[in-house]
């Protein structure tokens, strides 16, 4: 059995990301993931349980194979705990050498796991699937965060998340320095083109939302400067400026800012750019004066960060 180098820093907690990922969500998600691999609880791993004695004990290192921003370390201990319970074995001990939200380099040891080898091997793919996925989202988000530094604009996520993993995806965005927009359909109203058609216009849609749900912010999607002004006049709190060329976006931002604080318009209207927001275009979009850039690709297209579990 080997141990990491003695000068490797140790972190008592795997995360300093706020708000933290809910413990109950982690437990439910790990249970579902283990069921997929092992079958209904307690399940079985026919390879590991046939080839590794239950008494065998080793250390495994969770290692980064690529540079990026790590996230998802918070699932490691629960994955090991549930796996150990299914196998009726003690849970391995975990020592974290970095935290979610930290930059990592190839070969870096992220955590040391010491305990029954069966538990380590059975849990391996589940914890790697979750942590690699989250780290990929965090890495993509961190790239946008760096690109927007000094502009005053923030990168936001969207609802384009993996079904069942939204909490993890949005946690990973926070780990990468991004900001969560809305968690679902329940916490912010967003009036899009189909809502406008269904309600008979922007103003009727906004008035209906105010009447039914007076406690929520109302955001309206606009494709043109004229639509943005219409939404502003109708009382929108927040404008989503969709798929605008940079010059049109800049003109729309200027028009909205000129109206702020006048004729019942709030002193500051939140402006969000979205659509075709690649990393190489992000800074020029931010410099138009928008408050936010929402990027669906953070969660729907980010490649995983390659992580591995190396048995010593």
Structural description of this entry:
There is one protein chain. By secondary structure, this protein is α/β, with parallel strands linked by helices. Helix content is 41%, strand content 17%. It contains 11 helices and 12 strands. It has helices at residues 23-38, 46-51, 76-87, 117-147, 166-175, 193-199, 202-212, 225-234, 246-259, 279-286, 297-300; strands spanning 57-64, 68-69, 93-96, 103-104, 109-116, 154-156, 189-191, 218-222, 238-242, 270-274, 292-294, 307-311. A 6-stranded parallel β-sheet has the order 6-11-10-9-8-7. Strands 3-5-1-12 form a 4-stranded antiparallel β-sheet, with helices on one face. A two-stranded antiparallel sheet has the order 2-4. It is elongated and about 75 Å long. The model has no long low-confidence stretch (mean pLDDT 95). Pathway: Cofactor biosynthesis; NAD(+) biosynthesis; nicotinate D-ribonucleotide from quinolinate: step 1/1. Pfam families: QRPTase_C (PF01729), QRPTase_N (PF02749). Residues 46-55 have a biased composition (Polar residues).
